[in-house]
């Protein structure tokens, strides 16, 4: 019978970001219902292309195999009758031998068919999972960024890993199981009725009754599985927050309170887990009992029929085998149906992502490659992340090649949005952005990206060495250039102190501070050497002294290149050519640092608030 | 398996024993059923038809009793597995709670969470299914075999050959497939890591046009996983069909051989008895093989559970690296004094000293500030006071006593620690502010004062005031609000020593200033240690220590340092204008 919670391959927990699902509980202990069962499965099977023929082949093989298996008892019956007859009239070993060969042939054929099926189906499912994972990852690179503004990383992760795996585990299996079980059931029923009606009823009736009892138990016990799932979710949440907050728990001696809460949830989980487990464990026992009962009834009724002389002894032999054959498929069918529910739910979630609208295809656009001068113009640009909530209103700006532009303003003023639009991370609603007089809409997105060395606020390092992180997606870069860039941002000494220098692998636990990561990101931008520069809060976690070192490197880098700076710390942008002061999606002031201070407007207010507490 | 049993407590053992007793009873009944078939067959073959019904009804009783026994077994084993899961979870939780910060970092919090939740769940599921099979199958197989034993030698031989074939198939398959199953775990981790990397770095990847590079990296992990799983499946594919057909082949073999045996028997009556033996014999042979097949099924689940168990063992084998001392009180008269004596410190596994030759003394009730560049060792310094880490050289004294001599809880009782990233627990505002030891004895007045000092007036304006629910990681609060709640938490304890580790940089200048003024007013007598990046935050501290590359670059007041300390002057200049410096 189906498990209360499907096991996954482990390690799929997305800490900190739980996917919002219809049922509570972590993804590895979740059971879901699809919105539209038929549509979801239809879409899956259309999508997997040639793989569906392999699945079909597997299913056919397995169906043939099960028909062959159900034929076996027929010959076994003849064989035992032959033996029984032999007791009175002497064994005809030749007839017995030829019957035995037929049975051997039947069984051997079914072994071959079943083995093929046991390879084809799971291997195909695995390939399907592999295909879906690949498509999903390619998809995340083609989705517009606003998709990520509206959904959590944990949720997307769980679609690519958990849901793709679920499809891999069950897509071939559940269909094959369903069809094979039905075949066995039908074929066995037909053959049984052809052999003897009374014994058929004796076999089938208890099985069906038992099956109905199981259904009742399953539906009544749903609430225990929900409770278990909820408690798993609760314990997951509590453990997560206690472990992540470990230093606070310790520093405040909060261990006891936390443990108390933990024990409470753990006890609740224990109670719901064993109830759920007991109920789901009852079902195979029940099935075993039904099969036992069938065996007993076949023996009793069979013997009486033999005594009446209405059947031969061989019929009992055949039915003893049929009893064992019959009880299994009924359970397997329920199993398959519930597993197809999960499958449909997972494929819905996968296709929701795969069918999400993508960024415009740009292969037809010119791959403008000439030299970039760096003139930039925003022409009456308006933009909204969410329809109806415009946050950039008729924004116009001309930047001459080589100018350094700073964008300042309170949180939410739209500073980052401006550079996001410039990078074409998002498309403008109206208006136009031009680089060297060409609308960025007419330039390939990848080409626009190439024109900028960009440093973002979130310092992203990937699993790889320091060097790989610095050269990221670049061509061959000389050692001198790498070292020079790191020296310039003041991180060379630190890298040299690492166990393997520039070849030290970086990961979650390598102990880089956020500030050091930001230094690496700036070095990465220097190495990239793009014709224009964007710094979005690039030094927010770097202390002011290191920032001074970096400032020098940045001055060298931006010399003669059009550059954009977004910074909270106004001290870092004092020497920019133009400072744009933004508020609520509009430019409210423009000028140099001195001009703006002299004007005594919003900028000077912002600037002075930094120091108002000084003696 | 030997490892799992160490998580069994006495009640689990007792229950398991009762379970085993019921399993034996059930096996006895199951074995009894074909026996009756033998009796029935004998009865009517030998024309004792009237006995058939009475044997039959006894058989039905056996079947029902067996069901009853199996339900009891199911209940007991479900309970034991859930209880063992609970035990493991408790042990893990307690162990992790006892860890020092460095022990947590060794595993990473994310990994510890997986180990405490989904790994335990894997083991629990395995136990629930596996215990029954592991106990029942061998008993059933041996018992059924003993029934077969002593019948015709040909029949026994056939069963033995069948068993050998099954065992060989099992061994070969498992020998080749199990390593592949073990790989699944870490190959899946690789796929997940690569996916997460792509998602987390999506903007950078786009800015650098690195999409196809990331996809290649992902595809490598994805492909490895596929290859591994396909080869595992190749080994596993024949097992089940072969095992299943083996049952059929054995039945066939027994009949075929039976024909000869019966033909060569002496009397007609003997032949009839042999015939009924044959029918029953096949039933027992089926029982033997099917119980072995259930074993195979369990073996497939085993690697996953073992990986989980090993990961759990790893955690439990780790002793906390911070050992408790005996003292609960400081030296009389030195309350609130913090002193460093020639302290040096290197992170475990590194020979690079993050701090070197640090000596200073903070008097009771004074404010001590630390400033320095990224990586200069400021946070490490705080971690030594809270004993998240231990010094590698020298001594840290709190209240006149080495921190290592304290009972850790007693040490923490003196401190109000607020880290850079505000940590908020799910629960009410009240619970977050009035947190940790001594919470029962603190009054509403204490909480009100704490919120006032921390400039967290917003708490009163929440829909349900202090009882308002804060969601996990404080998602429904802004960054500044979280930080203020975290500060209120420290104030609420009225500690001897405040430790603010870069706590104020998340606040705007105005709040920063108001907060520090309130602190000074309301917490007179407490020692305050502030780590900061902004000169504005610390310039009015009693003493400022400038750290540079793990060493002291200067100690003094703002004015003294401006005159004497080059490093401090640099920092100050980069943030303030000339007139502001004066």
Number of beta-strand segments of chain A: 12
What is the CA-CA span between the terminal residues of chain B?
A: 73 Å
> Which chain pair shows the most residues in contact?
A-B, 162 and 174 residues
Q: Report the sheet-strand fraction of chain A.
A: 5-15%
Outline of chain B, from the CA principal axes?
Answer: elongated
Summarize the main sheet of chain B.
6 strands, mixed
* Number of beta-strand segments of chain B: 12
Shape of chain A: elongated
State the secondary-structure class of chain A. Answer: alpha/beta
From the alpha carbons, calculate the radius of gyration of chain A and give it in angstroms.
35 Å
| Share of residues in helices of chain B | 55-70%
Lateral arrangement of strands in the main beta sheet of chain A: 6-9-10-3-11-12
Low-pLDDT segments, ≥5 res of chain B? none
Task: Compute the separation of the termini of chain A in Å.
Answer: 76 Å
Q: Report the radius of gyration of chain B as a whole number of Å.
A: 36 Å
The proportion of strand residues of chain B reads 5-15%
Structure commentary:
The complex is a heterodimer of chains A (615) and B (582). Chain A is of the alpha/beta class and 615 residues long. Chain A contains 19 helices and twelve strands. Chain A has helices at 37-47, 51-89, 93-140, 146-149, 153-195, 197-220, 222-244, 246-251, 255-308, 313-354, 415-422, 445-450, 466-471, 479-488, 492-497, 514-528, 544-558, 593-599, 602-609, and strands at residues 376-386, 389-399, 404-408, 430-435, 438-439, 452-455, 464-465, 505-506, 532-536, 563-566, 578-583, 586-591. In chain A, strands 6-9-10-3-11-12 form a six-stranded mixed β-sheet, sandwiched between helices. In chain A, a hairpin with a 2-residue loop joins strand 11 and strand 12 (586-591). In chain A, helix 1 crosses helix 10 and helix 2 (51-89) packs parallel to helix 5. The radius of gyration of chain A is 35 Å and the shape is elongated. In chain B, 64% of the residues lie in helices and 11% in strands. The model of chain B has no long low-confidence stretch (mean pLDDT 85). In chain B, the strands form three sheets. Chain B has a six-stranded mixed β-sheet with strand order 6-9-10-3-11-12, with helices on both faces. Chain B has 582 residues and is α/β, with parallel strands linked by helices. In chain B, 52% of the residues are buried. Chain B is elongated, with a radius of gyration of 36 Å. Chains A and B meet through helix 2, helix 3, helix 5, helix 7 and helix 8 of A and helix 1, helix 2, helix 3, helix 4 and helix 5 of B.
């Amino acid at each position: 019978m189906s498990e209360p919670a499907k096991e996954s391959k482990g390690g799929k927990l997305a800490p900190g970001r739980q996917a919002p699902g219809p049922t509570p509980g972590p993804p590895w202990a979740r059971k879901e219902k699809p919105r539209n069962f038929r549509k979801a499965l239809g879409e899956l099977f259309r999508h997997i292309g040639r793989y569906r023929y392999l699945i079909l082949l597997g299913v056919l093989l397995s169906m043939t195999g099960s028909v062959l298996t159900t034929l076996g008892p027929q010959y076994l019956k003849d064989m035992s009758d032959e033996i029984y007859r032999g007791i009175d009239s002497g064994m005809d070993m030749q007839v017995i031998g030829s019957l035995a060969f037929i049975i051997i042939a039947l069984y051997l054929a079914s072994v071959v068919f079943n083995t093929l099926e046991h390879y084809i189906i799971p291997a195909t499912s695995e390939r399907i999972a592999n295909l879906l994972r690949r498509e999903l990852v390619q998809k995340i690179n083609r989705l517009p960024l606003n998709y990520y503004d509206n959904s959590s990383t944990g949720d997307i992760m769980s679609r690519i890993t958990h849901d793709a795996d679920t499809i891999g585990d069950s897509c071939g299996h559940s269909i094959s199981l369903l069809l094979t079980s039905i075949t066995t059931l039908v074929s066995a029923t037909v053959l049984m009725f052809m052999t003897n009606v009374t014994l058929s009823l004796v076999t089938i009736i208890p099985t069906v009754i038992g099956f109905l009892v199981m259904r009742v138990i399953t539906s009544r016990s749903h609430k225990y599985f929900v409770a278990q799932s909820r408690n798993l979710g609760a314990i997951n949440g509590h453990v997560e927050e206690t472990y992540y907050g470990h230093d606070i728990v310790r520093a405040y001696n909060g261990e006891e309170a936390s443990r108390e809460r933990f024990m409470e949830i753990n006890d609740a989980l224990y109670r719901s887990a064993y109830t759920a487990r007991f109920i789901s464990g009852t079902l195979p026992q029940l099935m075993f009992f039904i099969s036992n009962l069938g065996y007993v009834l076949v023996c009793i009724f069979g013997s009486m029929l033999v005594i009446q002389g209405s059947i031969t002894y061989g019929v009992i032999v055949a039915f003893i085998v049929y009893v064992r054959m019959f009880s299994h498929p009924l359970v397997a069918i329920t199993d398959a149906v519930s597993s197809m529910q999960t499958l449909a739910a997972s494929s819905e979630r996968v296709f929701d992502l795969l069918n999400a609208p993508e960024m415009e295809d740009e292969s037809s656009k010119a791959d403008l490659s000439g030299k970039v001068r760096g003139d930039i113009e925003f022409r009456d640009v308006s933009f909204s992340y969410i329809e109806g909530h415009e946050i950039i209103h008729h924004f116009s700006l001309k930047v001459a090649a080589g100018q350094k532009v700073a964008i300042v303003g309170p949180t939410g003023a739209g500073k980052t949005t401006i550079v996001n639009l410039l990078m074409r991370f998002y498309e403008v609603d109206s208006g136009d952005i031009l680089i060297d007089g060409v609308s960025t809409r007419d330039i390939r997105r990848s080409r626009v990206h190439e024109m900028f060395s960009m440093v973002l606020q979130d310092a992203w390092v990937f699993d790889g060495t320091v060097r790989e992180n610095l050269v990221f997606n670049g061509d061959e870069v000389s050692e001198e250039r790498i070292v020079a860039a790191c020296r310039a941002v003041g991180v060379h000494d630190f890298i040299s102190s690492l166990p393997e220098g520039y070849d030290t692998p970086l990961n979650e636990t390598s102990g880089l501070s956020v500030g050091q990561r930001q230094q690496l990101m700036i070095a990465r931008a220097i190495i990239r050497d793009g014709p224009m520069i964007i710094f979005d809060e690039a030094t927010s976690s770097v202390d002011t002294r290191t920032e001074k070192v970096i400032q020098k490197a940045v001055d060298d880098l931006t010399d003669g290149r059009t550059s954009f700076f977004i910074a909270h710390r106004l001290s870092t942008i004092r020497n920019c050519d133009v400072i744009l002061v933004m508020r609520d999606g509009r430019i409210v002031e423009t000028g140099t640092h001195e001009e703006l201070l002299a004007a005594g407007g919003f900028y000077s207010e912002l600037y002075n608030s930094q120091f108002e507490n000084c003696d | 398996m030997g490892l799992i049993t160490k998580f069994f407590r006495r009640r689990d053992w007792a229950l398991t024993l009762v379970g085993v007793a019921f399993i034996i009873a059930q096996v006895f009944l199951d074995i009894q059923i074909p026996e009756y078939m033998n009796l029935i067959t004998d009865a009517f073959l030998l024309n004792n038809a009237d006995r058939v019904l009475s044997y039959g009804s006894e058989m039905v009783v056996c079947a029902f009793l067996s069901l009853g026994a199996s339900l009891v077994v199911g209940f007991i084993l479900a309970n034991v597995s859930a209880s063992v899961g609970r035990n493991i979870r408790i042990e893990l939780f307690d162990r992790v709670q006892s860890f020092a910060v460095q022990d947590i970092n060794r595993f990473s919090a994310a990994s510890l969470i997986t180990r405490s939740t989904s790994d335990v769940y894997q083991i629990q599921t395995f136990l629930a299914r596996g215990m029954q099979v592991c106990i029942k199958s061998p008993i059933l197989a041996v018992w059924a075999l003993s029934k077969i034993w002593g019948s015709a030698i040909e029949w026994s031989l056939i069963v033995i050959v069948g068993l050998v074939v099954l065992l060989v198939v099992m061994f070969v398959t498992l020998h080749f497939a199990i390593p592949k199953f073990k790989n699944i775990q870490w190959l899946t981790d690789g796929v997940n890591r690569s996916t997460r990397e792509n998602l987390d770095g999506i903007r950078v990847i786009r800015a650098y046009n690195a999409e196809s590079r990331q996809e290649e990296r992902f595809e490598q992990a994805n492909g490895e996983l596929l290859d591994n799983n396909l080869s595992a499946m190749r080994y596993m594919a024949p097992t089940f069909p072969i095992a299943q057909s083996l049952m059929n082949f054995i039945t066939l073999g027994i009949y075929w051989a039976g024909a000869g045996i019966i033909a060569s028997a002496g009397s007609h009556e003997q032949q009839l008895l042999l015939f009924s033996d044959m029918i029953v014999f096949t039933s027992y042979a089926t029982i033997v093989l099917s119980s072995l097949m259930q074993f195979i099924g369990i073996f497939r689940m085993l690697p996953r559970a073992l990986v989980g168990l090993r990961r759990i063992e790893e955690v439990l084998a780790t002793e906390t690296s911070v050992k408790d001392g005996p003292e609960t009180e400081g030296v009389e008269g030195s309350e609130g004094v913090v002193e460093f004596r020639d302290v040096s410190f290197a992170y475990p596994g590194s020979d690079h000293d993050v701090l070197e030759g640090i000596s200073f003394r903070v008097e009771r009730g004074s404010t001590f500030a630390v400033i320095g560049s990224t990586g200069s060792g400021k946070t490490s310094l705080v971690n030594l006071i809270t004993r998240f880490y231990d010094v590698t050289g020298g001594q840290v004294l709190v209240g006149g006593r080495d921190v290592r001599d304290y009972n850790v809880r007693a040490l923490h009782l003196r401190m109000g620690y607020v880290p850079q990233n505000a940590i908020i627990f799910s629960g009410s505002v009240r619970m977050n502010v009035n947190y940790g030891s001594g919470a029962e004895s603190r009054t509403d007045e204490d909480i009100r004062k704490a919120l006032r000092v921390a400039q967290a007036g917003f708490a009163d304006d929440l829909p349900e005031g202090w009882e308002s629910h804060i969601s996990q990681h404080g998602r429904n609060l802004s960054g500044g609000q979280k930080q203020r709640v975290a500060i209120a938490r420290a104030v609420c304890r009225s500690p001897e020593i405040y430790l603010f580790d870069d706590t104020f940089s998340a606040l705007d200048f105005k709040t920063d200033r108001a907060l520090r003024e309130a602190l000074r007013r309301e917490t007179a007598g407490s020692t305050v240690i502030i780590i900061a990046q902004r000169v504005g935050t610390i310039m009015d501290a009693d003493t400022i220590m400038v750290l540079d590359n793990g060493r002291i670059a200067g100690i003094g007041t703002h004015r003294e340092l401006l005159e004497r300390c080059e490093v401090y002057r640099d920092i100050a200049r980069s943030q303030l204008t000339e007139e502001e410096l004066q």
